[in-house]
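Our consortium's second objective concerns turning raw sequence data into structural hypotheses that experimental partners can test. To show how far this objective has progressed, the report includes one record in full. It was chosen at random from the queue rather than selected for favorable results. The single chain below, 248 residues long, was entered without modification.
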Amino acid sequence: MKKNSPLKILLRAEAIPALTAGRPYFSMAELRAWLTRRRIPWTAATLNSYLHAFTNDGTVYDAGRGWYSTLAQPLALGRAHVAPVVELIEKEFPLLSFAVWSTQQINPWMHHLLGKFVTFVYVEREGVGAVWELLKEKGYDAHRNPTKKEAAKTFSVRDNTVVVRAGSLSQAPVDGHYAAPEKILVDLAAELAVLQLMDASEFTALFSSAATSGRLEITGMLRYAHRRELKPRFLRLLNQLTSENYES
């Protein structure tokens, strides 16, 4: 295969710039559709080879299997706010599977900055009670799996509010005991209907701001969103970041 074939030149000079004009992400499906509309012949093997070369030379960056981005750096989150909770649970339950995140971590991308924050601990179902009791004992305003009805009566955001949720962490986007940005965004979307931390328009603005500030791993985010029955919502959110309309 020629190092600089006409198709490779076309991809670099025309296709990728067209797909990323004002948009930080594109998918292999979009690229194939772009070429097909212009009746430009391609094969899956050739496109895969060229996109692999482009990610190696920094033309684009990997955003998950079949997804690419112009954003060089992954979305980074501060951990100082949640580290004490992680360390407390690690010390007491060293073998427990859990992941922690806080609304403080997404504050940089909020239009209206949050003044008080909620920390979430997602843990396997059998560990919820023990973690909740530990946090209560250590002085946290801990809530155990609050439902929407319960939250309306007893939940408010204080200085040390923690919500302990049952949830499988299998295939969830995590880094050790810290939730990755992709998990935080999906979990937060799920919490909106329960705790009403923000309205839908605020979440949409937050997603756009976060997703354009640093690179998300789209494939992992969509896989987790599917597991939480939120994939259609996240496909709609992706519409504002790509040149395609995703419906399912």
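The partners drew two points from this record. The beta strands are 25-27, 61-62, 67-69, 98-102, 118-123, 141-144, 161-166, 174-175, 178-179. The first strand starts at residue 25 and ends at 27. Both points have been shared with the crystallography group to help prioritize constructs.
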